[in-house]
Fold these 4 entries.
Entry 1:
Amino acid sequence: MRKTILLKAIALLLIISSCSNDDGEDLIDFTVNFSSETVGTSEEDTTKEITLSFSRPASEAGTINVTYTGTNADYGTDFTTTPDGASGTIAVSVAAGDQNASFTFNKLSNAIEGSTKSVTFSIDSFDQTDWKQGAKASTLVSYTPVAATGGVVDTENGGSTIPNQVYFDFSSATQIAVQRDTWEIALYNGTENRVYLNSALAVSAVEITGETDLLAITEASDLPETMDLFTYSFISQQMEPVSVSTLAGLLEGLPVGYEQYGNLDEGISFTDNAEGTLEGTAFSEVSTTAEENYVYIVSLGYEIPTEPAETGSIATTGDHRGFMKVRILGDGSTYTIQYADLAETESYNEVTVSKDDAYNLTAFSLSNGETVSVEPTKAQWDINLSGVFAYYGSQGPIVAGLTYSDYVLHNTLGDVGLYQVTIEEGVSSYANFSMNDVDESAFVYDNRAVVGSGWRDAFGGVVNENVYYVLKDGDGNYYKFDFTAYTNTEGERGHYQFTYERL
């Protein structure tokens, strides 16, 4: 019965079902654009993937012919391409069903200090007569860093199970996709010693106050003191008190769900807060005094389903991945992670991880016992299309574990500011918004969830056309961006698209 209630609640908040019949409808024009009008490179970059975006999936195979012009850059000496472009033309192949295509720019040299060096690539022709150039028919690849001027991005979140979270950097027009089940916790690299949970996997954690012996805790353990909590009843729409005195009892309400335990009035939450502040982590700040760091029980979240959802729906939550016990120590420059299966009483694993100032967080996989490359360096991403996002909080009458789809965060730990513009009388449309319209006082630097899921209407299955966003990155570049697609052209969710422009 409890499982049925949970499924109904999730269905009510997260799942839409919409079907369309395109039989007999004409396909929209097939147009090709460069995904960005400018691409910058650093001295360390040796290759750059140059992407061509399509207005719809290709209904037939074909070839896009791209030409180039170098400024102080010669083919074969300063750069090459893959496929080969020594003839002056790069033939980019397109397969039926492709939604984009790409070629590789191979940088063979760097620019001399003080000089300008670049290559401009242009769409020249197609072997399919009904294919057309779009508005962005060329892109400039610079041998030095340059902030991208704009583009259209089709994200790589991966479909209706939303297997990937995507990090996007506006100035470099770069997206990085990471499978969201590759890590459970992340260690903060700033001056404070903090531990974050993977909200994209619905990870949660509870402290066993006063307990420092990792091996003394098992599911059969009594809690040091009774915890007075609440659980939400979907049937009665009320919070019901729960007194928990054993670990086995606590585990029933630890995983994120509509029956998750917590007590917001007392500040008890087993997830990080939605805002992502340092003070809002489920783990207390790691003390440099070892005896002050207690054992935590970590719920490892949920498997990514292997089967896609029906068209128009999502399937992001599979089987529960189990529990581990974890204790984290720190000396200010390193973290020591002690961890073991909940039933283990003989030995535990221990890993030491050094802080790395280039990154906000260092991700760690409790399942595999190793650090994982997840976030780009803190200066190289602006928004995280996490896809799935879970935390304990309140929405309307519901005070419980909330799990969202199609969620977007911004890099508050990396000094990125963002605000939402709601279109109403007297407010500029997205097309007309300019640098003169920027409101410096509106930028939010202490709440990563400003975008959240408000950019789309889950029940209507459409993009929210009444909002767009303004962003200021850590280098002082200003961008506006607007979501333009919620699904792919076949109606499958988990395929997002947005357009952006530097102000």
Note: The first strand starts at residue 31 and ends at 34.
Entry 2:
Amino acid sequence: MSQIDAGWGAGPSARYDSLADRFRPVFAEIRAGAAARDRERRLPRAELGWLKKAGFTTLRLDPASGGHGASLPELFNLLIELSQADSNVTNALRAHFGFTEDVLASPSPEWRDRWVARLGAGETVGSGVSETGEAKVGQFDTILRRRGGEWLLDGKKFYTTGSLFADWIHLSAQDEAGAPVVAAVPTGAPGVEIVDDWDGFGQALTASGTALFSGVVLPPESIKPETQRFPYAMAFFQLVHLATLAGIARAAAEDAARLVAARTRIYSHGNAGRTADDPQILAVVGRVRGHAYTAGAIVLKAAEAVQRAADAALSVGREAAEPALALADVEVNQAVTVVTNLVLEATTVLFDALGASAVKAEHGLDRYWRNARTIASHNPRIYRERSVGAFAVNGTRPPREYRVGTA
């Protein structure tokens, strides 16, 4: 079924449904087991393997490199559909798609060619940026030391989302002098240990826990030539979260409709002889679906701004593209609170359309709110609202980089 026929509106391009159709059978299979995986805390290793085999991880590469040449709006719409199946899987791929953008935007031909070949062959990348130690804001406790012609890595990372499932870890660290260093670390290298100790009440299957590095030896080609992320990174990474939220809302809306349609019991004080005909119940289902529709439409609109920023950076360079990059951040930032509010409300009020049986673990409806609340807690939205206000009132551009650490 096309996105239009499903009532979610047109995709971002004329070819979108033909592109999406190759992945929709995989999405359907992923969704079929999502509630049970959440209930049993089974990591989605097989599901990520299905996507990799289908070529989903190479979306942004051009066809000559083994990809599909997807635009950014096409990518984000596909992430909505994947999140509708299982938001854990989308989050596990967030770092991979960000690393892909880093590769495509890299000014180093050697680095870019090497990694396009690896990504095109299906290799995947997880996150190794965040820490929870004592490092100050903008610094890292993870250290890369030069040892002759090699590098020696020691340290500890947390929120290493997706790394347990990946071939590589995109790692941020600093050298002995305190200068930033970025590296690609093989997950199977001696001295690398990835622990599934993420205990959040939502997004529990993303393996967003600890990665330990003890005397890991890296060759010079593992060190990224430049430490900067791709120019539109802030807008991109936040929009992945918003696309994930929009997909959660779609899943919640469809589950609510399905369960109402199947419901045979009614209340004596209801409005119809069949739950599916009760106008109050239908209004609740419509409200949830309207929230999901609006969230998805906002994500696709913001994706257009990110595409403009990416095109500008490619054509005129990072510095000259700064106005477009700043506007992409503004558009994404001003979408954050609206989308999160829509999805958090949708995943709460859906229960009003159902009876007490809706809270049974077999349905897994609670996971929608838990997952949405967890994603909405990343990159605090109150600061996004403030930056939008500063732009609107004073013309102040949003920060180009966000870091976390001790004061």
Note: The two ends are 51 Å apart (CA to CA).
Entry 3:
Amino acid sequence: MDDIAGLLEIYQPIPDGAPAGSDELWPVTIVVLTLNEERAIARCLDSALATSVDRVLVVDTGSTDATVQIVAGYTDQRVEMLQIAWADSFAQARNAALDAVGEGWAMFLDADEWIDSDCTDVLRDRLRAFESVAGITWCALTPVIREDGRDAEYREIARIVPADHLRFRGEVHEYPYIPADADAVPGLIGIDLVLWHDGYSSEVVVAKDKIQRNVALLESARRREPDNPRWLFFQLRDALPMLHFTDVMTLVEAFDSAKQQYPGDRQAPEFYRSLALSRACGRLAQLGEWTTALGLCFDLDRLTAGEHPDAAYFRGLHELNKVQQPAPDTLGRLVRLRKDPAAVTLSGLDKQGRPLDALIAAYLFRLKGRDAANAYLSLCEPWTDEFFDMSTLR
């Protein structure tokens, strides 16, 4: 597969026993799920229609604003609308769309997203390159999703699937699985296509009440699968800013009984537990519950059989806050950890090592002065860190 144009990375290999590919040209359908998306739907559809796809299927789940009227105003014959009732499940809506698509590629494009203008001409050719690959019908493709106006991008979200072979699981934070073989995990392959997204700007999040929506859907998912660590992690992550000490600890302790790996999920329960512990430490630190946070840091270390980068980060924050002169040995240990790419990628906070960079700079500032700290930060990409006001010290 190394010679496929547009291949970025293989996140999950093609499973054994997958059917052969095909030399026939697959139809391509862009699917857009909508619910009160009058703000962004025209931008989304315009970008979809700028490509050479066969069909743009809008699946509306009960809009009460002008979304349906805006879609109806498009005269391009490729635009179709399917109206279904919202059943409190993104997987159900995606699966209804896949049933309607029938065959070929289904590319899910959120209504608050648009296709990068440099990708509209090449989208179909990029997909065509995958169609004859053995086993591709049991794989999902993941474009690069970039946040407009924010330093964030996502590369492992399944958005392009063979419509007649894969389906989705989960009320929210849904993921693909293979109905024909529940024990197999779909292949997950990065593709060099860029989508832009602005649905997590603070204004949109508040207007659409996304946090409360996600939390409610995750509570439903946990009632259905109480031993599934995926839903437990996302419930903690999505509700984190609203959680108090007892809420955090209740969710952390729930991992003791959430140990089931469900069909199609490529991550083990320990993976979700590690991510949850990192996020929980951050929230506990914000609440000033340092004793408990440091205890969770030991749990993180045990999961990785060595010092976890997020545990090192929170221990360093605590030392900076509690002692007048931090230990030079700590700085050396942080630098060694930062130089270990395998260790850095274990972080549940930032896999690029930026929290450690901020912490190292703060240690340099305390031990060697402002110039040393800013000299280090000049080597790093600009960013803001949750526990530091700016990425440079002024």
Note: The domain at 7-203 is CATH 3.90.550.10 (Spore Coat Polysaccharide Biosynthesis Protein SpsA; Chain A).
Entry 4:
Amino acid sequence: MDIESRHRPPTAPPPVARRWVVTRTREVFQGLGAALTTPTTPGAPLLAGAPGRWVRLLPYVVAFSFVAALLPSTVVLLINDYGVNGALAGAVGTAQTLPLLLAVARPLEAWWIVFAADVLGALVLLGADGTRAEYWPWTPPLVVGYCALMLALGLRESRRALFGVWLATGAAGYVLEAFRPAGYTSVHTLLLVLSGVLLLLASAVRARGDAQRRLAEQETISEAERARRTLLEERARIARELHDVVAHHMSVITVQADSAPYRIPELPEAAREEFSSIAASARESLTEMRRLLSVLRSDGGEGERAPQPGLDRVQQLVEATVRAGVPAELRLAADLGEVPQAVDLSAYRIVQEALANVVRHAPGASTRVSVRAEDGWLTVLVVNGPSLEEGSSVERGAPGTGHGLVGMRERVRLTGGSLDTGPLPDGGFRVAARLPLRTKDTE
């Protein structure tokens, strides 16, 4: 190795910035190729999701109108102004305009056909000898049809595909500009600007529609999640309230089982052991219920220590409603018989929620609350608006939607009863619940 070669500095690697530019350029053009050959939603017509049939047919009507207007004008222009052979003019005009019908469902495929036909048509014009030809390389009907195609593309394809279409349009126009015959007026810049503007506008309209659709879907999902969360919260609240009811019965069982050997001295030893086992199981059940209740309490609090309300406090609810400005009356049967605690609590909560809805949604409306027992069922009726006749039954009301009455439905389902809610034929609203006064096991 000679001295000069030993002291020659090594060839420096290409700068990082140059490599990055080359890499990014390669990625961009590879992405453009994939975008130009892969339609976003192939086969789905424009406005396919519109509710009206005539709205869905509108793109086909518009496309057919363009074809009907542009095809004959293109053929006549090529023959009369550019001196193109009739058969060749018909073929070129058909290839340049008829794919507009395809653009309704497959605009990207239609663009490939139209773009190739436009370039081929420009090459045909090179050999034409018409004396009235003025424009190069695109004819006026071609510009109109191409702009219509840009609108269809912008409403359907991705931004990368639209950028590729715009680049191809500009590149073809500038290449053909190099072969422009003398005396012709260049229109490739006009088409490039028009196509770019239309692609941007259509893309913006599509993006706005997509955003609105996603927002509507998100609102639907949010509403469903909100309804589900409301249902779960109401179920947890019911479970917390029923804890006191069940705990009371379990406590009674525990006390009775523990005190049985002292109250009945002649009990055999086996019975004493059985009562002791019952008391232990009851205490264990109470412990498990308290553990479950601690899971159901989302706020981590200890909860209310006051006794759970029942029908004996319905009169207080009605009086509070009257003080809130709602004229209300209560018809509570004197002898309701023995009402289970779960039914007693559910009936109170149903009346409470119904009166709260009246105060919120129908302030000032006359309201009547009726509670009576018949044939083993407790009937709770809350009506605002026109009063009902005496003796009206639950089944006489029109079935309602029950919107916003999640708690009522859950409580009725819990006790095995039925709920009927909805507007009355002559105005007002009606809530009617039938709750069983005894279970099948006690019948």
Note: The longest strand covers residues 367-374.
